[in-house]
Amino acid sequence: MEAASIVLFGATGDLAMRKLYPALFNLYMDGKIPSTFSVIGLGRREWTDEYFQSHIAKALNAFSRRKPDETLVREFVQAFRYCALDVNNSEDYTRLKELVVQREQQLGLAGNRLFYLSVGPEFFATIAEQLIQSGLGETAGWKRLVIEKPFGRDLASARELNEKLSHFFSEEEVYRIDHYLGKPMVQNLEVLEYSNPVIHALWSNRYIANVQITAAETVGVEERAGYYDKTGAIRDMFQNHMLQLLMMTTMHLPNPSTPEEVRRKKKSVLESLRPLQPEDIAAHVIRGQYQEGVIAGQAVQGYLDEPGIEPYSQNDTFIAAKLWIDNHFWKGIPIYIRTGKRMQEKSTRIVVQFKDPMESYNDPRHTTAEPNLLVIEINPNEGISLQLNTKDADHPGQFVPVRANSMTHAADMPEAYENLIFDALRGDATFFAHWDEVELSWAWVQPILEAFEANALPLYTYKSGSNGPEAAHELLGSDKWWLDKEPEVEAAGEKLQEKLVQI
Ligand SMILES: NC(=O)C1=CN([C@@H]2O[C@H](COP(=O)(O)OP(=O)(O)OC[C@H]3O[C@@H](n4cnc5c(N)ncnc54)[C@H](OP(=O)(O)O)[C@@H]3O)[C@@H](O)[C@H]2O)C=CC1
Ligand SMILES: O=C1O[C@H](COP(=O)(O)O)[C@@H](O)[C@H](O)[C@H]1O
């Protein structure tokens, strides 16, 4: 990998502290970034280099997935310098340029520059423009712009932002982070399909009955009320992470494939996604908002009682949708997607339900088979399991499901940001969100945003600690969401009843 300078906007912020410094440190420990590198951190706060370096050391102690070795940390932070800068002030960019060039000369770097924008999206266009006008974009090496989500808040604003950025950086130079694409198991999906003939052969509507993609969280809105109450689950999770998971699961790639091929195939999935007409939305989309409840034995408050939330907020903290991909591979197969906060457990997973085994096993005595399920666990654990049927030794003529499992604890794997920063430094854009995908995703959700804004859909409530509103289960008709655990309150209630019977 070529040595580079990282110019980090938002270096004093939360994301940098919790994710970016630990990711860089882990890459450093694994020898995945060159031993000579430069990071220049930016923010309005008047920090010294020493203060900045001690801030990073503290962040590593608090948030690194591996216990940091003190000597390595001391070595690592030597690469960091701080420069106070207001994104709107052009003179600050002149000082920044001097520092970048000075560090490049000191360290013998060839002028490759990665500009990482870990700041609010309202600053993206201004920063891109200032980088070019200040001459920071003119360099003997490459230049790349890494930007965080959200990329717009609807189709029109995303297009406007992209138009502005495109004056200063080409599409090949823009790396839009969607951290779900950095998760090891998501990066593994492509390999899983084409390196396993067993899966590859079954990966279509011929054998699959439905695909279910879930991202359930137990956390609530936390300290992000100001952002979340204007964003909701649809913009925060669905338009980006969930549709990316859908594309990654359903695209069919040739082997081997290029980043360009991945991009083309993902785009083609979204182009085949059946658009929702306003009159169809209610039958395909369920929105919900959490009420008080119990999670991990703790009582938690409802969304409307969270600090900073508007008292009559109609914001969605849950969304479930039924989608159809009208292409040769997936026509006729429903894809179910749901995501929500304050749900029963933290689980991001993909479940592929195969067609009814009785269709192929035509013996009327055998009536009890469960469907085959391929389960891909993404977070917090990573793993793959396959549910198969075997003969039930105790009940002649019946089947029992068995699971073949492989599980890894996610803490042992590289974090999403490690993978993504590594790829951005190498110039591999495979696991970044390309403009085509972002635009098509916004285009698909736009009628739903409008229906939400017009209050044209019911807003169902659900208890914290549950699996979402009942309507999200009804959405599936005769299908069901697989692997949901019993809500705690009900489970506790059931136990109580059992006890009473025994007494
Ligand atoms: N935190 C998270 O978990 C996630 C965050 N994101 C995205 O990452 C980005 C950063 O988020 P986060 O770190 O949480 O935000 P914070 O509010 O914690 O940090 C914002 C950063 O922006 C800097 N900043 C604000 N205004 C200016 C300005 N006028 N000039 C220069 N710097 C400025 C602040 O520095 P200072 O105060 O010193 O000026 C600070 O470093 C956002 O786009 C967010 O949506 C995405 C996914 C998850
Ligand atoms: O982007 C976001 O993702 C997190 C969930 O990420 P995960 O890696 O823990 O699954 C979510 O909590 C947050 O609201 C959203 O902005």
TrEMBL record:
<feature type="binding site">
    <location>
        <position position="346"/>
    </location>
    <ligand>
        <name>substrate</name>
    </ligand>
</feature>
<feature type="binding site">
    <location>
        <position position="149"/>
    </location>
    <ligand>
        <name>NADP(+)</name>
    </ligand>
</feature>
<keyword id="KW-0119">Carbohydrate metabolism</keyword>
<dbReference type="InterPro" id="IPR022674">
    <property type="entry name" value="G6P_DH_NAD-bd"/>
</dbReference>
<comment type="similarity">
    <text>Belongs to the glucose-6-phosphate dehydrogenase family.</text>
</comment>
<dbReference type="GO" id="GO:0009051">
    <property type="term" value="P:pentose-phosphate shunt, oxidative branch"/>
</dbReference>
<dbReference type="Pfam" id="PF02781">
    <property type="entry name" value="G6PD_C"/>
</dbReference>
<dbReference type="Pfam" id="PF00479">
    <property type="entry name" value="G6PD_N"/>
</dbReference>
<feature type="binding site">
    <location>
        <position position="183"/>
    </location>
    <ligand>
        <name>substrate</name>
    </ligand>
</feature>
<keyword id="KW-0313">Glucose metabolism</keyword>
<dbReference type="GO" id="GO:0050661">
    <property type="term" value="F:NADP binding"/>
</dbReference>
<dbReference type="GO" id="GO:0004345">
    <property type="term" value="F:glucose-6-phosphate dehydrogenase activity"/>
</dbReference>
<feature type="domain" description="Glucose-6-phosphate dehydrogenase NAD-binding">
    <location>
        <begin position="7"/>
        <end position="188"/>
    </location>
</feature>
<protein>
    <recommendedName>
        <fullName>Glucose-6-phosphate 1-dehydrogenase</fullName>
        <ecNumber>1.1.1.49</ecNumber>
    </recommendedName>
</protein>
<keyword id="KW-0560">Oxidoreductase</keyword>
<keyword id="KW-0521">NADP</keyword>
<feature type="binding site">
    <location>
        <begin position="86"/>
        <end position="87"/>
    </location>
    <ligand>
        <name>NADP(+)</name>
    </ligand>
</feature>
<comment type="function">
    <text>Catalyzes the oxidation of glucose 6-phosphate to 6-phosphogluconolactone.</text>
</comment>
<feature type="binding site">
    <location>
        <position position="236"/>
    </location>
    <ligand>
        <name>substrate</name>
    </ligand>
</feature>
<feature type="binding site">
    <location>
        <position position="44"/>
    </location>
    <ligand>
        <name>NADP(+)</name>
    </ligand>
</feature>
<dbReference type="InterPro" id="IPR022675">
    <property type="entry name" value="G6P_DH_C"/>
</dbReference>
<dbReference type="InterPro" id="IPR036291">
    <property type="entry name" value="NAD(P)-bd_dom_sf"/>
</dbReference>
<feature type="binding site">
    <location>
        <position position="217"/>
    </location>
    <ligand>
        <name>substrate</name>
    </ligand>
</feature>
<dbReference type="InterPro" id="IPR001282">
    <property type="entry name" value="G6P_DH"/>
</dbReference>
<feature type="binding site">
    <location>
        <position position="179"/>
    </location>
    <ligand>
        <name>substrate</name>
    </ligand>
</feature>
<dbReference type="GO" id="GO:0006006">
    <property type="term" value="P:glucose metabolic process"/>
</dbReference>
<dbReference type="GO" id="GO:0005829">
    <property type="term" value="C:cytosol"/>
</dbReference>
<feature type="binding site">
    <location>
        <position position="341"/>
    </location>
    <ligand>
        <name>substrate</name>
    </ligand>
</feature>
<feature type="active site" description="Proton acceptor">
    <location>
        <position position="241"/>
    </location>
</feature>
<comment type="pathway">
    <text>Carbohydrate degradation; pentose phosphate pathway; D-ribulose 5-phosphate from D-glucose 6-phosphate (oxidative stage): step 1/3.</text>
</comment>
<feature type="domain" description="Glucose-6-phosphate dehydrogenase C-terminal">
    <location>
        <begin position="191"/>
        <end position="480"/>
    </location>
</feature>
